[in-house]
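user: Please review this fold.
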Amino acid sequence: MNFGGDMQNLAFTIMVAIAVGGVALAVLFPMFANDTKNQRIKALANNKSSGGARRLQDEGKERRKQVQESLKQIEERERKRKKITLRTLIAQSGLDISVRQFWLFSLALGAGMALVPMIFGLPLYLSAGLAFVFSLGFPRWFLGFLRRRRQDIFLRDFADAIDVMVRGLKAGLPVSDAMKVIANETGPPVGPEFVEVVEGQRVGISIDQGIERMVERMPLAEVNFLAIVMAIQSKTGGNLSEALGNLSKVLRDRKKMKAKIKSVSQEAKSSAAIIGALPFFIALMMTFLNPTYLSPMFNTSIGNMLLIGCGVWMLMGVLVMRKMINFDF
């Protein structure tokens, strides 16, 4: 009888323990399950984020690699373009003549200027000097003058042309149509340069290649910036209107800086011009007041040697002053 009571007590105790264990399991299992679930979610998120970060890092490396390759190609082209031929110089000056016509004009000008001292009975070495200067020196200088003037006009309107392109892109126009607007609405030399780019697209020349040709015709840092932007954008993609907007801001800042440098150096340039013109002005006034005073300088061999020496030293001084007051920017 007692044995049966003990068995009942033991069975009751086991049942109570099972019930308490079941209740505890029902209460505590969701907590452990949630912890395990959160750990699995965190693990998956970490794997996904690490994979996404690795993928973004790989894409960034690939983009940087493409940009570096584009810059290297542009630098190589710049090294090849350092030597300027006469044909290139004529094209950059905006003249529509051939190299043969240029040399014929130079020889004719040199021969004509060589006849002037002969007509007035001056020494033959003066004729030879004038022939050399006006056949080889002056035509090249004149081409350089036309080239610089054309480049200055181009820079004056180039930032506005970039702004037109930016507004066209923001309005939904493709790049080629935006360039057509510049070609039709902008005056020379900016308009004709973009006309060359637009016409090149009709024969299969891409836009970045057309702008590279523009750099050859207009070798300016500002045009090279545009070529770099277009080359990088064609290979890596991105917001072209934003890049061109930043380029326009840079071009305007450079223009302001050039104007500031010009204004600051104008005093030195005026002083150099006065110093350079002073000997000629004094000689002219002395000849006007006393015509025979400077005659030995022109009629004697010693005077001629002194004039040549003074001219050489004067030229050296002018070149030194020019080097000191000219700033490359």
